[in-house]
Amino acid sequence: MRQPQAIDHFKLASWTYEMATAYTRSAKVMSDTVKHFTHVRHKSSRASPAYLATSNTPSSKGNDSRRLLIILDLNGALVSKTGKSGMWVRPHYTEFLEYLFSQFEVGVWSSARQNTVSNMCQLFGNFKKQLLFTWSRENFGLSEDDYLKNIPTIKDLQLVWKSLEDNPDMPSYTAYNTILLDDSSSKAALQPFNSIAISEFNHKSAEKQLTGDNELLNVIAYLEKVKYEDNVSNFMKRNPYKKDLASDETTERDFESTHFRYSDAKQTLGDLRNTAGLTNDGVSRRRTLEKKRPGHRKYRKSKQASSKPVTPQS
Ligand SMILES: [Mg+2]
């Protein structure tokens, strides 16, 4: 009579372990795949079939002779407004502008009104005259009612492409060679794979005050990858922008932010770690409060000299 084989418990345990590991691995791959397709499907929901067909046309590395068009948002992306009087500009912006204007065609499209956009454009300094266009709320084709309300807007890149069509000096701009840089991904709902959605820049953010901000260096590193692609919508669909390209090391320059006062274009260098204590004009809030306290010698002094203008300082 045949003897039943003794169970090798060690082999059984190791086989069970291998099965469990393989199961976990495949579950993770499946979960990542589902996440990716959900993300792509969600992003594609408002895009036209023609646009989606373009974004599915495989991209290959071309030569660097053509210039991409980069369309910049302002508030939240490059600047943080301080009421109506001024703005703080994102750290590393000078390096970013030098890089952009040496490599690409650059335009501005903000959902703020023309006058505010014109004020915020002070940040471009001498590069301002190189801007291909400066678009504002007036360029969304909104009804008068919607223009006045604070309704969410979508930046339809078709409007930009059409407006540049008649310019004989311009190459043809399409989803193949245009990138929108915005802190709000919903703005790019119609051409979602042509958009780099960066984190919002707010000089009062507790996180920025703690870690500084090197997002613009990260964007430079990403654009270095994208710029040779002959269909950026396809490349960016497969390789969306991520915040892991710039160095992890925090430097002093990550905290350097420049305040612009609109009235006279005065620039004041500030430190994000201190901006919470600064008023909208770059004047120390603590000093201002001191002056307002009755009985304080600075209060008495300021009463005597109340007609004198306060000089902003960093
Ligand atoms: Mg914005």
Bound ligands, each once: magnesium ion
Question: Major sheet, described briefly?
Answer: 5 strands, parallel
Radius of gyration over alpha carbons? 26 Å
Give the name of the CATH architecture of the domain at 53-238. Answer: 3-Layer(aba) Sandwich
Taking strands numbered 1, 2, ... along the chain, how are they ordered across the largest sheet? 5-4-1-6-7
Element order: H for helix, E for strand: HHEEEHEHEHHEEHHHEEHH
CATH class of the domain at 53-238: Alpha Beta
What class would the helix/strand composition place it in?
A: alpha/beta
Let me know the number of strands: 9
Average pLDDT figure: 83
The unreliable regions are: 279-294, 298-314
In percent, how much strand structure appears in the residues?
A: 5-15%
The end-to-end span amounts to 96 Å
Query: Helix amount, in percent?
Result: 25-40%
Basic shape = globular
CATH topology-level fold name of the domain at 53-238: Rossmann fold
Q: How many individual helices? A: 11
> CATH superfamily membership of the domain at 53-238, which one?
HAD superfamily/HAD-like
